[in-house]
UniProtKB/TrEMBL annotation:
<dbReference type="GO" id="GO:0046076">
    <property type="term" value="P:dTTP catabolic process"/>
</dbReference>
<feature type="domain" description="NTP pyrophosphohydrolase MazG-like">
    <location>
        <begin position="31"/>
        <end position="104"/>
    </location>
</feature>
<dbReference type="InterPro" id="IPR004518">
    <property type="entry name" value="MazG-like_dom"/>
</dbReference>
<dbReference type="InterPro" id="IPR048015">
    <property type="entry name" value="NTP-PPase_MazG-like_N"/>
</dbReference>
<dbReference type="GO" id="GO:0046047">
    <property type="term" value="P:TTP catabolic process"/>
</dbReference>
<feature type="domain" description="NTP pyrophosphohydrolase MazG-like">
    <location>
        <begin position="170"/>
        <end position="229"/>
    </location>
</feature>
<dbReference type="GO" id="GO:0046052">
    <property type="term" value="P:UTP catabolic process"/>
</dbReference>
<dbReference type="GO" id="GO:0006950">
    <property type="term" value="P:response to stress"/>
</dbReference>
<dbReference type="GO" id="GO:0046081">
    <property type="term" value="P:dUTP catabolic process"/>
</dbReference>
<dbReference type="InterPro" id="IPR011551">
    <property type="entry name" value="NTP_PyrPHydrolase_MazG"/>
</dbReference>
<dbReference type="InterPro" id="IPR048011">
    <property type="entry name" value="NTP-PPase_MazG-like_C"/>
</dbReference>
<dbReference type="Pfam" id="PF03819">
    <property type="entry name" value="MazG"/>
</dbReference>
<keyword id="KW-0378">Hydrolase</keyword>
<dbReference type="GO" id="GO:0046061">
    <property type="term" value="P:dATP catabolic process"/>
</dbReference>
<dbReference type="GO" id="GO:0047693">
    <property type="term" value="F:ATP diphosphatase activity"/>
</dbReference>
<comment type="similarity">
    <text>Belongs to the nucleoside triphosphate pyrophosphohydrolase family.</text>
</comment>
<dbReference type="GO" id="GO:0006203">
    <property type="term" value="P:dGTP catabolic process"/>
</dbReference>
Length: 268
């Protein structure tokens, strides 16, 4: 605890020095909440990426980068007289204690994980009501990745009964939205096409939710698979001294199938 306290204080001090109007770093001084927010999101994704890759030696550095974002925001808020890092730490500590009465209060721990999740949602609903968030969808952050936000919106709606009872209805809706996308494409209306594409993606997210699949994780895995297989195509062509632009679709398709078969063979 002594080391953590010292290093946290040191980091806060370094950030304050970087923001010092007279002696700090010009880039850091110029930043504001809006300009730093994209970096905060990026660093959170880099933490998730390190965990996904099981790059445990990289994780402390990535978590440090994410912590810097918290300290940066807190420093700017302190300069504006709004709050400081201590307020941030106090807020999350108070929230954790309030949301775990079975650990920090007098409630029994003798309950299932599912019951604890229901209790957690009840507590969060009370907190939202205290913030005058009366609508079922109030408080779902706009800055979330779109697929993640879609899931959260759908979960909120489902809690009040607005949901399909089974995946069959979602699949029917997926077919309907696909047909509407084709019609929009054929109409030549770019705005309508973008809208229908959004509707289709929203239903895909809903299907993932009904199948208990995290669509962000599923798409991340698909991206990684695409990268591996395309790199296999590049490697195969490089052995002949060629690049993809010197090949054609038929050849690259065959190399893709070979990479796919090789992956499946390794999995057996």
């Amino acid at each position: 605890m002594t080391d953590a306290t010292y290093e946290t204080g040191r980091l806060i001090g370094i950030m304050a020095a970087l923001r010092d109007p007279a002696t700090g770093c010009p880039w850091d001084i110029e930043q504001d909440f809006a300009s730093i927010a994209p970096y905060t999101i990026e660093e959170a994704h880099e933490v998730a990426d390190a965990i996904h890759r099981k790059a445990w030696d990289e994780l402390p550095g990535e978590l440090g980068d994410l912590l810097l974002q918290v300290v940066f925001h807190a420093q700017m808020a302190s300069e504006a007289g709004m709050f400081d890092f201590a307020d941030v730490a106090r807020a999350i500590s108070d929230k954790l204690v309030a949301r775990h009465p079975h650990v920090f209060g007098d409630e029994s721990r003798d309950k299932s994980a599912a019951q604890q999740v229901r209790d957690w949602e009840t507590i969060k609903a009370t907190e939202r009501a205290a913030r005058a968030e009366r609508g079922a969808l109030d408080g779902v952050a706009l800055g979330l990745p779109a697929l993640t936000r879609a899931i959260k919106l759908q979960n909120r709606a489902a809690r009040v009964g607005f949901d399909w009872p089974a995946t069959d209805q979602v699949l029917d809706k997926l077919a309907e939205e696909t047909a509407e996308l084709v019609a929009a494409r054929d109409s030549g209306d770019a705005t309508h096409l973008a809208e229908e594409m959004g509707d289709l993606l929203f239903v895909v997210a809903n299907l993932a939710r009904h199948l208990n699949i995290d669509p962000e994780e599923a798409l991340r895995a698909a991206n990684a698979k695409f990268t591996r297989r395309f790199q296999s195509i590049e490697a195969a062509l490089a052995r002949d001294g060629r690049r993809p632009e010197e090949s054609d679709l038929a050849e690259m398709d065959a190399l893709w199938d070979a990479a796919k078969a090789a992956e499946r063979g390794q999995a057996l």
